[in-house]
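We store sequence, tokenised fold; for instance:
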Amino acid sequence: MVILGKWGERPVTLSLKPGSLTVSVDGPEQATVMAYDRAGRPWTAYLDEVSYRRGLDGRVMAKWRTAGEGRERRHLAVDEAAGLERRLWESLLSLCEGIERGKVSWRTPFPGEAWEALQTALAFDAEASQRDAARYFDIYKPVGILPPDHYMAVVLQATEGCSFNTCTFCDFYKDRPFRIKSPEEFRAHAQAVRDYLGAGLSLRRTLFLGDANALVIPLPRLVPLLEITNEIYDVEALTGIYGFMDGFSGQKKTRDDYAKLAELGLAGVYIGLESGHNPLLERLKKPGLAEDVIEAAVALKAAGVAVSVIVLLGAGGAEMAEAHVRDTARALNAMPLDGEDIVYFSELIVHEGLPYAQDAAGMQPLSHAERLAQGDAIEARLRFRDPADRPIVSRYDIREFVH
């Protein structure tokens, strides 16, 4: 439902959907756009030529364009995020007061449902935002990362941590030991997540099973957790259950195992191949071989489960670049990927605290442009079985994640 109006000389547009409310008010130079879930949580905003995205944990990511079509991004400091939320709230309050005083004239009908949605968003003030973020941390361990197409997922943490936790390029789970939740604990968690999201559940698009490689859970323990998920959520309406898996543990489940999980709603699996070059995987302390990922992908596809494969651009630096390109393309070409699948190219992001930074001492790193060129080189070598039904090939920047 789109509702058009005018506030003085400023056009106003309200877009009311089952999952969200978007408010756009044109200013003298540009529009201010604010979007909320149906529980009133700020979700995205655009003002002063900067795009903002607020996570359930209260963190805010800012992104903006620079000269030459470059893109910058950063997480706002706590006080900056609070200031942004206050500014959005004050803008919404001013609009609601204008509506109450008859200062907004409507070109299309203004239904009561729209006013209720505005009041729900207005009730999400600074105090409510702080309470909501605190409740989030009562329910979740920090969610380290999700694939970009699942940033709006309902995340259910069936496990905590990573089952091997050795990769030199990742520190998302270094602060917690790996453990699998019991059915009783998982049920309480899944219900708490649903209660927490409330009306905001309608904005969520998928179900994602966390943490890092939750599908490592042995089948007899995993099946009850998926059954519980189906009891609490409408899995079909949320387009299925997804999760991360590493190739090493993936090999331990058969095609029949995956078919059983597919019957319970497993729709897609995300595998960190990182590289098809086994010496590089060993250097990254990634367990298993590229061949393990190929076997897992074959079994998953045979069971009707979509496969998304993540490749780490820049890993191994200039020293291993040629082998990384050659063997990664070879591995991807050996997988039966089609139009239901995704190949993600993710740039290696290194900071001083990562073991990779010490392990790669003396290695010539690739520049940003060289990493992008490496992705192009891999893509140019891909030969999918049906060119008309090829997987999506996309970029994946871990720095832009907020949950």
